Amino acid sequence: MEIDRISVLQGDITKQKVDAIVNAANSSLLGGGGVDGAIHRAAGRGLLDECRTLGGCSTGDAKITKGYRLPAKHVIHTVGPVWGGGMRGEDDSLASCYRRSLEVAVENGVKTIAFPCVSTGVYGFPQERAAEIAVREVREFLGKNQSIEKVVFVCFLGRDFQLYSELLK
Ligand code: AR6
Fold first, then answer.
1. What's the DSSP call for residue 120?
2. Enclosing H/E stretch for 65
3. Is the pLDDT confidence value at 1 over 80?
């Protein structure tokens, strides 16, 4: 069942030893604060150099790089929507981030993948609404795809850990 392949933990995504961790990046893909900053710091300069070759990324899309000094083999960079009140297609864009990240994962033979809570920090997307979208999209994708073995939601904040734990019960 899909649900057996999904888990949640509270912690730092840069420490996860998985095939790919997802980065909540911005459209430049050239780094920033939050989880993006943490991933670039932990991965080292090679990550930024590879990101420079990618030509940025649109909101709702995803691009893959190597993981460099991270324990994860790859980083899948996705660009979440900036919250603007909910009437500007934010839900669809966020759903697209999860779907596109999983599609890129499958295309690259990634079997284990960790997600942060995309858009819910600097970009201001409401946490509960984002968690519902994330869990729904991942469940739906895993229902159709057998090649992904494990999806982990890595929550930095206790509140997110609570929300995901409830949704995955
Ligand atoms: N591991 C896991 N989650 C983390 C970590 C970590 N080490 N650090 C922070 N988080 P944010 P966004 C959580 O702001 O809202 C950047 O500047 C954090 O608590 O990182 O998508 C980019 O360059 C929150 O739950 O991403 C963009 O400009 C979640 O990660 C912009 O921020 C996402 O918060 C993207 O904003």
1. S
2. strand 62-66
3. no
Our measurement of the distance from residue 139's CA atom to the centroid of its chain's CA atoms, rounded to an integer in Å, reads 14
Q: Whose CA is nearest to atom 12 of ligand 1?
A: 119
Burial class (CB in 10 A: 0-12, 13-18, 19+), 130: buried
Tell me if 131 sits within 8 A of 160, measured CB to CB.
yes
Q: Which two tokens stand for residue 69?
A: 């000094």
Token duo for residue 140: 């739906």
CA gap 105, 62 in Å, rounded: 10
Q: Among the atoms of ligand 1, which is closest to the Cα of residue 28?
A: 23
For 108, phi then psi, to 5°, come to -110, 15
- Write out pLDDT tens, residues 24-62: 999 999 999 999 999 999 999 999 999 999 999 999 999
